[in-house]
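Record type: monomer structure entry
Structure origin: computed from sequence
Chain ID: A
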Amino acid sequence: MVDTSVIPPALARNAVGVWGEDGRRWLEDLPRIVDDTLRRWSLRLEHPLPMSFHWVAAVTAGDGTPGVLKLAVPGSDHQPVEAATLRAYAGGGAVRLLDYEPECGALLLRRAAPGRMLRHLVPDRDEEATAIAVDVMRELHAAEVPDAGVPPLANVRSSLVRYLTEHAHHGPLPRWLVEHAVSLFDDLLASASTSVLLHGDLHHDNVLSDEQSASGWVAIDPHGWVGDAGYDVGAMLYNPDPDVRSDALLRRVPARIEQLADGLGLPVERVVAWGFVMAVLSEVWTVQDGGEAAGRPLDVARLLEPRLR
């Protein structure tokens, strides 16, 4: 039986905060779930990995394949989408899905090696980091869009609308900023010429070095959406460490925009617009998760807003 001490406070807090009693019961049963899954898939537990909403650990399969075991509260809305997205990517630009048991909330992924995060190139090699992200995006966006299992990007709109409904008169974010994001989001969807399989949360912590991949880097933890390719550029403008307000990183935003637009063949104006929408969305999600909207995404939104006029 795995020692429950491997469950960090953040995971315990988030599991109960998001899934309530289901999350609490899952935490209590987690040692048994881990033990059963390791035995069922003939895995050897190596060591825990950073955890926030899932139990995650490095494992080794019986044939020696290095893997990552990721366990979620059964019934989680996100995990089936992640599995469908990774299955569609089929190892092209993303870690490969090795196995999935939805009834147990268990994902088995091939482990990226050496697994160094892209964030380690920032700020000294920021241009190189952005170029790597562009290469990964190109590979991901070339995947065939699955017939089912991944929702349309239009569903993201509900988060913005929910914020405006819950904060009808006042709120932690300027209302006009969120209203502008809704209007712009609608315009961007209406004017999209093609739809691709989006990662949905592509940033410096979700791109890892991998000696087995074509580019030497792979994406992890996709949110999974189907829609306009420009959506995936947004998180690259306010990461890494979006909670840290940094004038130095903020000054890099214009250069990142130009590089992303050029590398992906997108109009600069469209990258600016998606960057603004994603920055506002990030702060809206922070508020909806009980946090304070005062990080770098808000600074990025304010920086980009004049370019939208």
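Annotation 1: The domain at 4-111 is CATH 3.30.200.20 (Phosphorylase Kinase; domain 1).
Annotation 2: The longest helix spans residues 9-40.
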